[in-house]
Amino acid sequence: MSSDFEKFAERLQEEILEDARKHYTEIVIDNWMHPRNLGKIEKPDSYARITGPCGDTMEFFLTIKSNIIKECRFLTDGCGTSIACGSIVTELAKGKELNQAVGITQEIVLKTCGGLLPDDEHCALLASNTLIEAIRNYKR
Fold this sequence. Notes:
It contains six helices and three strands; from the N terminus they run ααβββαααα. The protein is an alpha+beta fold. A hairpin with a 5-residue loop joins β1 (46-51) and β2.
């Protein structure tokens, strides 16, 4: 038997998701609610950390073998769209050669996720820039 608080929490979560579906694609919501590759790599081959203009910080951890991204993980203290964009970028980058992955731009992230609200588009840029910085750090 659920407590009143548990029922309230479930209703609130349903309302939040219902509202999110009015503004975001299912790809964004799914990557927000079930992020892929969230977490650290203990001894990465490369790492980058960037704080965006909105104050969200994103970190990328890469494992690279023979110039190919074998593992790509991220952390963020940001909002749902930052989480979604970090998740999407890791999925786009895994298995790519470094020269291909460095081409994962904000525009590619926005196209992949089906678009974001104008006020959230910077989240795609933050995720893209953090990946690119991790690749640059590796090449240095």
